[in-house]
Amino acid sequence: MMVHEDYKEMIPARALSALDAAEDRVLNEHLENCSECRKELEEWQATAATLAMVADPVEPSPELRERILSEVRKELSTPEVIPFRSTSRNIWRSFGSLGAMAAVVLFTALIVGLVVLWRENREINEKLAVANEFVQLATTPGAKVSELKGIDLGSGATATLAYDKTGHAILIANKLPSVPQGKAYQLWFIVGKNPPMPGKTFSPDSGGKGVLKEQMPKEAVDSAIFAITLEPERGSIVPTSPIYLRSFEVN
Amino acid sequence: MELLKAIAARDEAALAQLYDRYRAILFGLLMRILNNREEAEDVLQEVFLQVWRKAEDFDEERGRPFTWLVTLGRSRGIDRLRTLASRERVAEAGARDAVEEISDAASDAFKSEQRGLVNKALAQLPDEQKRPLMLAYFDGLTQSEIATRLGAPLGTVKTRMRTGLMNLRELLAGQGESFGF
Question: What is the ipTM of this complex?
């Protein structure tokens, strides 16, 4: 039975992300409920961060700055509610009376409300479209459906994977734990005793629901176990976390 | 920190300013981890885009911006290193070979005085404590992997790593304000 002091001893290694997977999992569970240890971890992380100073500073290529800012501009130009902020300043200046101001507030609220409704409607439509696509795929002649169940850290989560003979697949997952910054779930195909083959990554929404469209490797279409792990957002070529969900029967 | 608040409010110029301030320290760190310019630049881009998207997550009560940025950068770098599934370094390649690329330390937030203090503190640590710290921080090795690499018992590695980091903290404790970034 571990006591508080045992966890505290693990914290410096955790700040260096040097704990082995099992210890890391145990400490993470403790950290969720112990603010004292969370505070201590932050202090050790500050010490660990000073090690970055051992590396010589190096200049990246001058083009990188523009590449990053160009990506940012692209995101800024994506139609969101945000543009209202900049245009509203000019509108405020052009109206003198309180009545006109109130009208602008009401008008803006109406537009924002409409945008929110439109987005919600679009999200519902997108979900319905995926559900339809899933049903169509699952009912295609020769198609298979495999159930995945959450284990350990993924306990309580469920997922269903439907795929046809060509390997076109759709995964719908529910009750997934939220993912930390920079991480995403990744699907794996395990055929016989071969190393797991990586699939795509996906992130769950705030309700723990995740959807993934995938083209399966040919080898996995006939016989495979499916598993889901937590990986860096870009995906891994080998699993680096414990299994969150898996199928229990070879398809 | 004002810059991060401005970034959270979608201020592109603030992101450019943050980049100018931290690019050399973060890129130096990523080069040390990955020893490959292309990979390091790719990860640096990911890091700043993540800063752009997640700046509102920064909580100044939970640490300094420097710690947040370096922890984020190092974590992304180690993730990439593991993804590449190769810890082979190309000897003498990369930053340490290209003297002209080494940033003028006085031009960014990474002041040479502070680097000197950290290097001085590390120099006071016994090698048996310093090596586990370096292997964990820059090579992303776990304690078990370090034990295998050094041919030392796991328990010994755990003790040395903990003691090493504690000693480093104590040695730097007197310099608290110097690390205020």
Answer: 0.85
Contacts of B29 in chain A (CB under 8 A): 52, 55
Contact A234, A201 (CB under 8 A): yes
pLDDT tens digit sequence for A43-98? 999 999 999 999 989 999 999 999 999 999 988 886 554 444 444 444 444 445 56
Find chain A residues with C-beta within 8 A of B41's C-beta. Answer: 60-61, 64
A249 φ, ψ (degrees, to nearest 5): -120, 135
Does the CB of B51 have a partner CB in chain A at under 8 Å?
A: no
Instruction: Fill in the amino acid letter for A95.
Output: F
pLDDT of residue B47: 95
Maximum pairwise Cα distance, chain B: 51
Instruction: Kindly determine whether residue B136 and residue A9, on different chains, have CB atoms separated by under 8 Å.
Output: no
| DSSP-based three-state secondary structure for A231 | strand
Residue A251, token pair as written in the block: 């398809």
Question: How many A×B Cβ pairs under 8 Å?
Answer: 182
CA atoms within 13 A on the CB side of B102: 10
Which carries the bigger pLDDT value, residue A78 or residue B91? A78
Among candidates B25, B118, B136 on the partner chain, residue whose Cβ is nearest the Cβ of A57: B25
C-alpha to C-alpha distance for A20 and A29, rounded to whole angstroms: 14
Count of Cβ atoms closer than 10 Å to residue B3 Cβ: 18
By Cβ distance, the residue of B67, B82, B122 closest to A45 is: B67
**Digit-coded pLDDT (tens) for B150-179:** 999 999 999 999 999 999 999 988 665 445
> Whole-model pTM?
0.57
